[in-house]
Amino acid sequence: MRRAISRHQSLLLALFLLSIPAQALGVPQPYGLGVAVLLFLLSTVRPERVDREPLVVDPPVRGRWRALNSPGTKVPSHGVRLYGQTYAIDVLQPGAPDPEGWGLDDPEAFPAFGEPVRAMAAGRVVRVVDGQADHRARRSLLAVLYLLIVEASARQVAGAHRVIGNHVVVDHGEGAFSLSGHLRRGSIAVAVGDLVDAGAVLGEVGNSGNSSEPHLHVQLMDRARAEQAAGLPFRWRGWEPVPGDAEAAPAQDRAVDGVPRTGEEFVVAAATAGTDPRP
């Protein structure tokens, strides 16, 4: 039941938001304040949490990166369980340009933009969403507030695909699906039905969807569609923290072992082909 309700979260939220000005202006409508409150409460329903051992998979990138919003620091990593994000992680490359003007920088100025995004394990592509533009970065205070308050709300009403941006979902079997989001428009190199090996290029890092600057958002979940999914924990093999990184922390201090913490820089030199996603 909770998954069925969460599938229509965007519609429920849109109906609630439309009811606010209608209530204030006294516009006749088929439901009153009580129903409006019910719509809001239903829009907050999330799928039940799934308890599983972390799956061991390959990192989706190569080279030097920095982790943000990581389950290595807290769970849920993005503050919500919405769209299967309980254990999601964002990664970007160090070396972003200094903000200019209003902080609306071209995505091409960021080192992560256009970097290959790889499959974390072997599987079959079950969902591809492309065509959304790579917008300018939002890095000034005003631009970030606009992103969080105006853009995020509008994208939420439009649906999960507008929040996640261009993305690929891969079915790894045994109820595990990976999602790679915010991909560069036109860069997706796979189609629904394709079989991919661990390390296969799925697309490139972009700045589509609800993104403040070019970065990759990845997560594991138990359904192919993020609207109905619960997040699954995972561990990455083959990564190393950058020596001397001030944000580094011992494994015992991590909320989830096997992934870099928020703010921690790490290096992926190579990956093991043919990853088995089972623990």
UniProtKB/TrEMBL annotation:
Keywords of this entry: Hydrolase, Signal
Coiled coil: none
Enzyme Commission number(s) of this protein: 3.4.-.-
Example of a GO MF term: hydrolase activity
Domain of life: Bacteria
Parts of the chain that traverse the membrane: none
M23ase beta-sheet core domain location: 158-224
Signal peptide (from-to): 1-24
Record bears the keyword Acetylation: no
InterPro entries: Cell_wall_metabolism_enzyme, Dup_hybrid_motif, M23ase_b-sheet_dom
PANTHER family from the UniProt entry: MUREIN HYDROLASE ACTIVATOR ENVC, PEPTIDASE-RELATED
Protein's recorded name: M23 family metallopeptidase
Source organism: Patulibacter brassicae
Classification lineage: Bacteria, Bacillati, Actinomycetota, Thermoleophilia, Solirubrobacterales
